[in-house]
């Protein structure tokens, strides 16, 4: 979030403080990544435990209800009987907090267990569609086009990990969650970073990891270099090759999982000779088989990285064969397309609203909403994929411009759009980009304002029902509860420091929070944000006529939708 705000508190703060307040900046991505760190509170204070949904080598996974919002989430409970395991759990959470991609599981917080001091709880989004292993076991191998979607999304997710110098080290069918129902694999999620590890970019990748033993990786998916004891992040690419093979034919390439020692011998002796002598492969495109061979290249230095694999002709060809939106024929696809167009228009309006927010308080709340209270969902993921055709987790300015032109029928220059994005984008090497978390943040304030307006118009007296009252509540109410955990009826600078996870004994924690309160308050001497004031600020106002940006970007979508319907019915 850019701190280009021109409105700063005055009279009670020094000129130096006002200048620091103006320059106080944090992007939604940086805020969210910093927000997701170990909390001092306990799990039972914030969540209600639900049913067991799965378990693995590092712990059991349960459903749970977030008391503040009523949202159903997942919690991984890990019993830490020694300091080494405690460090491993904290490392897993730290790595998850760094990742920001629609095909990677979203993590919320690391909490202590009230009932067992040796238990730690990692809270994430809940996905109930099952994993790829179950899907193949029940329904058999996938169609080639479906495999292409899975591999494209997994390669994008792995690329996002490798960009952060994180090797997953346990990529397998069981660690890929898929949506409920058959056919749509684009919203899959890569999970379980219990074996993941960082490497130092300055050092040789092969010094990253320890020699292979039974606790590292799954034998059916390990690369030859893991067996040798020195390997790099490209072990993940090999594992993706195994996944592609299984998805195409329903069987593992190097022997059954019931005989791990023979599997390891087969991997060691395989060279680059991969057998496709199975009936399901007889009708598979030779280019697809070439893709699998490349991922399973024996020599690690010749094996492609994720970006190189994404450029394979097989993936590129299938992307080109996908029908353009205007040619979509099925009613379900047309409805999905129209939903995407409407969602894209909402994103555009949210950008305009966000651009008009000079109040740093609202910018912080928007980021907090995205970090703590907005779960990933298929519609958000679909919008982001439409904005990010390369799948690298970053929306380029040019792609955003093309998407708004395609889905909203808008007319505007790149310079206009760059100005619109200025408060929220992350700039790297002079290229304006928007991350997944930043898409959540810009939509958060729009959603919050609408919910609050709906509550106000219905004249509800109790906008903040008691915690645990049941049902999913307004996200604005959830934020207020979060910032006022003691139910005082107002928010202090100390509450902001805790809620925004600011480091103590810093200017931001000591002075910045007080200036934020003064900016919200009509009285600069106020040291709290009252409940009424909080509700009023979240109602917000549309940009005034002097602040309206890019009127041509709000062009009505009616003609575009009519054209879509008339063309698709022909």
Q: What can you tell me about this protein's structure?
A:
This protein is α+β, with helices and mostly antiparallel strands. The chain folds into 3 domains: 15-34 and 329-539, EF-hand (Recoverin, domain 1), CATH 1.10.238.10; 36-125, Phosphorylase Kinase, domain 1 (2-Layer Sandwich), CATH 3.30.200; 132-321, Transferase(Phosphotransferase) domain 1 (Transferase(Phosphotransferase), domain 1). 46% of the residues lie in helices and 11% in strands. The protein is built from 23 helices and 14 strands. It has a 5-stranded antiparallel beta sheet. A 3-stranded antiparallel beta sheet has the order 10-12-11. Strand 2 and strand 3 (72-79) form a beta hairpin. Helix 13 crosses helix 15. It is globular, with a radius of gyration of 25 Å.
What secondary-structure arrangement, pairings included, does this model have?
Elements: H1 15-23, H2 28-35, H3 43-46, E1 47-56, E2 59-66, E3 72-79, H4 83-98, E4 107-112, E5 119-125, H5 132-139, H6 144-163, E6 166-167, E7 176-177, E8 189-190, E9 197-198, H7 224-228, H8 235-249, H9 260-269, H10 286-295, H11 306-310, H12 313-321, H13 331-355, H14 360-373, H15 378-387, E10 394-396, H16 397-408, H17 414-421, E11 426-428, E12 431-435, H18 436-457, H19 475-483, E13 490-492, H20 493-499, H21 507-520, E14 528-530, H22 531-539, H23 558-568
Antiparallel strand pairs: 1-2, 2-3, 3-5, 4-5, 6-9, 7-8, 10-12, 11-12, 13-14
Helix pairs in contact: 1-21, 2-14, 6-8, 8-10, 13-15, 13-16, 13-18, 14-18, 14-19, 20-21
């Amino acid at each position: 979030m850019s701190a280009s705000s021109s409105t700063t508190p005055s009279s009670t703060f020094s000129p130096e403080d006002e200048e620091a307040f103006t320059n106080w900046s944090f992007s939604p991505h940086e805020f969210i990544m910093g927000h997701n760190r170990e909390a001092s509170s306990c799990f039972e204070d914030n969540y209600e435990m639900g049913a067991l949904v799965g378990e693995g080598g590092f712990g059991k996974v349960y459903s749970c209800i977030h008391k503040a919002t009523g949202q159903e989430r997942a919690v991984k409970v890990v019993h830490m009987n020694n300091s080494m395991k405690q460090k491993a759990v904290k490392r897993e959470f730290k790595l998850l907090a760094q990742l920001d991609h629609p095909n990677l599981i979203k993590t919320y917080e690391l909490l202590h267990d009230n009932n067992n001091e040796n238990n730690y709880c990692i809270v994430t989004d809940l996905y109930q569609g099952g994993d790829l292993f179950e899907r193949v076991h029940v329904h058999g191998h996938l169609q080639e086009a479906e495999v292409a979607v899975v591999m494209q999304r997994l390669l994008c997710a792995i690329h996002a990990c490798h960009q952060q110098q994180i090797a997953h080290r346990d990529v397998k069918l069981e660690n890929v969650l898929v949506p409920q129902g058959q056919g749509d694999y684009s919203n899959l999620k890569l999970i379980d970073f219990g074996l993941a590890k960082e490497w130092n970019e300055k050092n040789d990748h092969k010094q990253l990891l320890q020699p292979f033993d039974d606790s590292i990786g799954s034998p059916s998916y390990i690369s030859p270099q893991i067996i040798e004891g020195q390997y790099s992040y490209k072990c993940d690419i090999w594992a993706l090759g195994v996944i592609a093979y299984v998805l195409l034919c329903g069987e593992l390439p190097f022997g059954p999982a019931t005989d791990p020692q023979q599997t390891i011998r087969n991997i060691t002796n395989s060279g680059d000779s991969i057998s496709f002598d199975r009936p399901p492969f007889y009708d598979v495109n030779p280019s697809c088989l070439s893709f699998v061979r490349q991922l399973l290249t024996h020599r690690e230095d010749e094996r492609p990285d994720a970006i190189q694999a994404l450029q394979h002709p097989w993936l590129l060809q299938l992307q080109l064969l996908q029908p353009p939106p205007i040619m979509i024929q099925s009613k379900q696809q047309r409805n999905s397309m129209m939903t995407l167009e409407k969602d894209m228009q909402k994103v555009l309006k949210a950008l305009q609203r966000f651009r008009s927010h000079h109040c740093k308080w609202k910018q912080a709340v928007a980021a907090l909403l995205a970090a703590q209270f907005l779960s990933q969902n298929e519609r958000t993921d679909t919008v982001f994929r439409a904005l990010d055709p390369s799948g690298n987790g970053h929306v380029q300015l040019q792609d955003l411009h093309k998407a708004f032109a395609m889905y909203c029928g808008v007319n505007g220059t790149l310079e206009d759009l760059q100005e619109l994005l200025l408060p929220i984008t992350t700039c790297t090497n002079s290229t304006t980009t928007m991350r997944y978390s930043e898409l959540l943040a810009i939509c958060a304030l729009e959603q919050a304002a609408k919910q609050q307006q709906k509550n106000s118009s219905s004249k509800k007296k109790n906008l903040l029902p008691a915690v645990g009252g049941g049902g999913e509540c307004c996200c604005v109410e959830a934020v207020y509860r979060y910032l006022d955990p003691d139910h005082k009826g107002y928010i202090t600078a100390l509450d902001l420091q805790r809620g925004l996870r600011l480091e103590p004994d810093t200017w931001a924690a000591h002075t910045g929070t007080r200036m934020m309160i003064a900016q919200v308050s009509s009285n600069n001497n106020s040291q709290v944000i009252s409940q009424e004031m909080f509700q009023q600020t979240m109602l917000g106002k549309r940009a005034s006529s002097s602040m309206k940006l890019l009127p041509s970007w709000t062009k009505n979508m009616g003609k575009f939708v009519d054209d879509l319907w008339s063309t698709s019915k022909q």
